[in-house]
């Protein structure tokens, strides 16, 4: 299996180089030269497998045996899901009213990012050891990516694999922060930056595309622009589809819709790759908060960066420019590198992209979307608890509110003849005391703590934090000037990490 850039067919490389680079050197995102296609017979076979074995079958189609032999790939899969509550059924799919909810948060850090990052980081550790070369992971997080990445790297404790993770100061939950700052590991560095949720994206992209040849360590990104992330995450789309069909007693090949909270579009692009493979998904429904660039793009064709980030209770999806939109455009255009390159050049120059009507119509045939306010999210969280005694985190509640708005209801007496819908629940409520309390009140949060708070999560509350390094912001500086300074600071920290081992 070979990989190419979304922006140029001239770039062709191996799976190893694609995931160890993160971005292609032209700034594009890596995609398979040819997506592996599956049919109903394959899906029927996959429906008999547990989650670990299904993952192996999926990954084998994207990773050549000459790069990762069968035995090693099986070991990687087993190790990646070992920290899940039930590895063979890592994603429970339950019914809530007329919607099926896939709970993606039963991993070590209580969020769906465990499903993608433990695989990705396991593969990077494998390649670091195989080549005896140092790799440093660069991460920017608005909530769950950081904790999942830090935990995965710390669990491996491979001196050849280190991580520098950044989060926007004061814009993630206390629990999420402590998941990063309470880990004592020589291979981990944590930084808070004083800016908006995606203000570190540009410095990290610059570092990944400009400095690798001059560094003692290979710089790699593990946010969802790295292809290993959507590759790993497409497994739960396949798993969810098969469980819904199984529960309904329908035949493999019948379509369903999938609804999901959407930030950087990593999970959405994973689903689109699964659909490109042949998974029978009729529509993907992306639900956002008031930072609504995805919704505006899907409804109007105008992909315009907003002047500023708006703080919300669903902070992990506070995104102004979701980088995985580039992968969606690539598949939307039938793998038209030239057109995607032109669009991305326009976007990078102006922070705006206006799609022609023909492309908007195609988007709307394949996707739907909704925009949800904090008030609507809280109302839905209360409603789901009242009707079904189900606690949801704010991002899952955003998706549930969107499901209602788009016509997928949560009442038991709804019309079951409609296209079945599955909703991806992306995190445990245990990480979001502020949002759950806002929706359910202090008594509601306390009831959750007493009845449903994960025992494993309780230990994090009591841990002592290690103070993170701070990238400060000067009010007199422009964003560009701050990003240049932060980039320099990050490079200095990377240099210290490269000395480990």
Distance between the termini: 33 Å
Describe the sheet with the most strands.
6 strands, mixed
Report Rg. Answer: 21 Å
Roughly what fraction of the amino acids lie in strands? 15-25%
**Structural class by sheet pairing and helices:** alpha/beta
Could you give the count of β-strands? 16
Put simply, the count of helices is 19
The best one-word shape is globular
Can you tell me about this structure?
There is one protein chain. Helices cover 46% and strands 16% of the residues. The protein has helices spanning 15-21, 40-46, 51-60, 70-81, 113-131, 145-156, 174-181, 201-210, 228-248, 266-277, 293-300, 325-332, 337-350, 357-366, 374-388, 394-405, 433-452, 455-461, 479-497; strands spanning 3-5, 8-13, 30-32, 93-96, 99-103, 135-140, 161-168, 188-193, 218-221, 256-261, 281-288, 302-304, 352-354, 367-371, 421-425, 469-471. The protein has a 6-stranded mixed sheet. The chain has a 5-stranded parallel sheet with strand order 9-6-7-8-16, with helices on both faces. Strand 7 (161-168), helix 7 and strand 8 (188-193) form a beta-alpha-beta unit. The longest helix is centred in the middle third of the chain and has 21 residues, at 228-248.
Write the SSE topology.
Elements: E1 3-5, E2 8-13, H1 15-21, E3 30-32, H2 40-46, H3 51-60, H4 70-81, E4 93-96, E5 99-103, H5 113-131, E6 135-140, H6 145-156, E7 161-168, H7 174-181, E8 188-193, H8 201-210, E9 218-221, H9 228-248, E10 256-261, H10 266-277, E11 281-288, H11 293-300, E12 302-304, H12 325-332, H13 337-350, E13 352-354, H14 357-366, E14 367-371, H15 374-388, H16 394-405, E15 421-425, H17 433-452, H18 455-461, E16 469-471, H19 479-497
Parallel strand pairs: 5-15, 6-7, 6-9, 7-8, 8-16, 10-11, 10-15, 11-14
Antiparallel strand pairs: 1-2, 1-3, 4-5, 12-13
